[in-house]
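In the laboratory, one determines a bound structure by crystallizing the protein with its ligand and collecting diffraction data. In a computational setting the workflow is compressed into a single prediction: the sequence and the ligand go in, and a structural description comes out. We illustrate the idea with FE2/S2 (inorganic) cluster.
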Amino acid sequence: MSDSCLTLTINGESVRLNDISPTMTLLDYLRRIGQIGTKEGCGDGDCGACTVAIVAKGSKGQPHYQAMNSCLIPLGSVAGQEIITVEGVANGQLHPVQAAMVKMGGSQCGYCTPGFIMSLFAAYYDRTVDDVSVEGNLCRCTGYLAIRRAAQLIAQAKPQDQFTERLAQATLELNSICYITSNQQFYRSTRLSEVLDLLQHHPNATLVAGATDLGLELSHHRKHISVMVSLEAVEELNLLTDTSEFVEIGAAVPLSHIEDKLRGVFPSLDEMLHWFAARQVRNRATIGGNLGTASPIGDLPPVLLSLEAQVRIASATGERSVMIADFFKGYRQTDLQPGEVIVSVKISKHLTQGAIRRLSQSYKVGKRGTDDISIVAAAFVIDLDEHNRIVHARLAYGGVAATPVRAIAVEQGLLGQPWTIATIQQTKRDLKDGFTPLTDLRGSADYRKMLVANLFEKFFVEMGGATIHPLEVG
Ligand SMILES: Cc1cc2nc3c(=O)[nH]c(=O)nc-3n(C[C@H](O)[C@H](O)[C@H](O)COP(=O)(O)OP(=O)(O)OC[C@H]3O[C@@H](n4cnc5c(N)ncnc54)[C@H](O)[C@@H]3O)c2cc1C
Ligand code: FES
Ligand code: FES
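The predicted complex, in structure-token form:
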């Protein structure tokens, strides 16, 4: 389908956009048309002032209101979708979420308030109002106590109103789009084959999934992108398969769906997703995008390295799989060739031969708990035999080299060793010597080296090692 206009619905009104940049952020557009209740705080997904709710598919396929940061979303990505802004929530009287904020004094200067309202609004209809629902919203002056009290007031509500009715009538399927302006082209395909064809015709096209990384280029750096190909509606990239043998996660599955659907399958993935950005970002961000950025501080690569995931890649000439350890080639460089797309990530559930149990966990150290990037991230897998000896070890890190990496020499040294504090103490020395991280604003090289070693000891303690083998003092 080729069209000269994009359509979207804002607060119940259908809007047709002609010759407007598909890479303009939704926030810029809203403010341009006078919907200035939606605020810009940071413009990079960190503060939540620009939060709006969008009608989208939940992890079980149900329609729901999803909070997202409008400062990161290219207009093209929300084509055909229904957006609710803070202007659209009151209906002659305050919405229950607004009334709760007023009652509890949850607003002072008011700048952050529309964002909090929209995050709470989305959670209110999902019946998931809690601290996590506002973890991506910052308030500089009211203090969080009043806002949390407001949240508690509505936490038990069972909403039934015009917004629940609108959800029941919502169309969730995203259509293919071909939107062409005088100097830009935006495509959204529903089939992988269409994407691969497009890449043949537009070798320099920019792929976009959730836009939580790319959105910064649009919002902060005002980058001009001539041809953008959206992956979020591609059927093959939205599959999530969980069998007794393996899990396969489509590259365009939002992280919040992975959180819901795979909870309890891989503890290290659960843990890392919990600390990954904040709700608004996880609602849009994808695993394909996390690998695609090839950031040395991406949080999922250490987990995937420790679990020895395989990356499935497609191009017009066929498909191939590459082990995640071979996927990162250098600083911000991957093994992806022109015309290739990440299709999925596959993780085996098998224990190593001879092992009777697996210990596995991940850790993220940042300046603050939520919505922050890592100083160091680590993920560990240790398989033990019946004599408590290590038969398989994977120690993976982010933030300590130009790419996410495994401590391969240390892993080999651990094979056959007993899982004891003596082994851990020796390993800590090897780990410290094994990396030469950089010093930057977030942390010094020495601090990072210390984290590399100490996180492994923390893992040992948390897995119950210290109760069997009391820790040496000093
Ligand atoms: C406020 C904020 C907090 C964040 N916190 C974290 C964090 O805690 N941990 C973390 O790791 N990251 C974090 N990020 C970065 C970002 O959210 C992640 O990297 C996310 O996984 C990117 O996914 P996406 O779908 O939004 O990618 P996009 O922005 O859509 O794309 C990113 C890159 O990947 C490419 N790409 C996307 N999909 C594919 C595919 N299928 N095949 C090939 N290439 C592809 C794109 O072309 C682009 O180059 C944060 C970002 C923000 C704004
Ligand atoms: S303006 Fe701060 S998250 Fe969008
Ligand atoms: S009320 Fe002022 S920043 Fe929150």
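Residues 468-474 have pLDDT under 50 and may be disordered. Keep in mind that any predicted model is a hypothesis to be tested, not a measurement.
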